[in-house]
Amino acid sequence: MISVVMASYLGEYRKAAKDRDKKIIRAVNSVLNQTIPTELVLVSDGCKKTIDIITKNFPKEHNYKSDINGYFIDKQKIWSGKPRNVGIEKAKNDIICYCDIDDYLDPDHCEKIYNAFTGDWVWFDDLVYNQGRWIHRKCDVNKKGMCGTSNLAHKKIALWPDPGSYAHDYIFIHNLKRASSNYKYIGKGGYRVCHVPGKFDV
User: Fold this and answer.
1) Exposure pattern of 65-83 as b/e (b: 16+ CB <10 Å)?
2) Which of 84, 81, 106, 107 lies closest to 96 in space, CA to CA?
3) Distance of CA 64 to CAs 51, 72, 199, Å?
4) How far apart are CA 136 and CA 156, in angstroms?
5) pTM score over 0.90
6) What is the DSSP string of 5-35?
7) What would be the CATH architecture of the domain defined by 2-201?
8) Which residues in 1-31 are b (16+ Cβ under 10 Å) and which e?
9) Which of 57, 66, 102, 171 is the most exposed place for a label (fewest CB within 10 A)?
């Protein structure tokens, strides 16, 4: 099936979304409530608070439909690819997609990807919040800034740049293209982008 990699850092940094300690619960729930069994691979980037929140709110004795597997690594520099690379390495499933801690997934997001997935990697559109409603946003892997982490699902064929930069998404897409030309666009996904600095934060 699919593994969802979620890199988590709950410390403060410039232009960070507000209330991420609460939003991570929303994000994790959205993975656990997928319409197909899905593995969540949560990588805590030097932040013990993440582990405490997950342990408190998602006890192991609860029989979830999806697996939660958490890993703790030392604090990395901002834009480092290591948290996501650890997630890729530890993932049990062949197909990897992502969810940021301040965003969330529609219940059928992973099922849409799984049913449409062919080749080695795919990209898809997402939904962004605009003046009280959700807008379908087109994605383009060939234009810088027009496709990001939220728009990708792939096999274990490439790694994120480390050390990275603000353009780490675009660099990773280049790594995917270099690894395989067997990819396609699969249309509208169910990824909800909840934070764009200076525009919205829901």
Assistant:
1) ebebebeebeebeebbbbb
2) 84
3) 18, 21, 35
4) 28
5) yes
6) EEEE--S--TTPPS-HHHHHHHHHHHHHT-S
7) Alpha-Beta Complex (3.90)
8) ebbbbbbbbbeeeeeebeebeebbbebbebb
9) 57
Sorted by where each begins, the domain ranges of the chain are 2-201
Q: What is the pLDDT of residues 48-103, one digit of tens each?
A: 888 888 888 988 766 777 789 989 888 887 778 999 999 999 999 999 999 999 99
Give the pairing of strands 183-193 and 121-130: parallel
Residue 55 identity (one-letter amino acid): T
In sequence order, which ranges of 4-155 are alpha helices (DSSP H)?
20-32, 48-57, 82-90, 109-116
Would you put residue 187 in left (φ > 0), alpha (ψ -120 to 50) or beta? left
Considering only CA atoms, which of 183, 192, 152 is closest in space to residue 169? Answer: 152
Residue 42's DSSP bridge partners are 6, 70
Residues 6+ apart with CB under 8 A from 179: 120, 157, 158
What tens digit of pLDDT does each residue of 78-92 get?
A: 778 999 999 999 999
- C-alpha span between 74 and 137 (Å, rounded): 35
Amino acid letter, 183: Y
Coil, strand or helix: which one is 144? coil
